[in-house]
Design brief:
With 150 residues, this protein is mainly alpha-helical. It folds into 2 domains: 73 residues, Helicase, Ruva Protein, domain 3 (Orthogonal Bundle), CATH 1.10.8; 54 residues, no CATH class. The protein has 7 helices and 2 strands. It has a two-stranded antiparallel ribbon. The termini are far apart.
Amino acid sequence: MELPLNLANVQNLFKSVLSACYPDDEIRNIFFLVSEHLLNYSKIDILLKSDEPISAETAEKFNQVLARLKNWEPVQYILGSTEFYGLPFKVNQRVLIPRPETEELVDWIIRKEGTRKGQHPRYRNRKRMHCCCTGCQVNQCRCMGLRYPK
């Protein structure tokens, strides 16, 4: 596989190689995540600098990521991190990846807690979390989201 030497070519390569595995929107999101991680660029930087040359070393890193993605390895495991409720988390194959639905659950809990009326003052600021057998990682993420709201 010839190494692409700018981001536009890398993005086209991602699309052509991964189109059998992922929908176009997901490929674009994965490309942005990988570019942000490898180049420390924002999405705006990626779009503005798409025609600028990248080093052969950086192109090779993109190709290594692409090879792992073709084997259905989650991008979060490849990058070693993910974001949950605005907080960065380190992840690897031994932990569950926080899901967007869990962020929605945290939002719902916060909204629900904010609407409680008539609670005894002694218990008003006390937060409780009940484990519903969803996995320790998920509960930790929910607690982190509640502890450090956006």
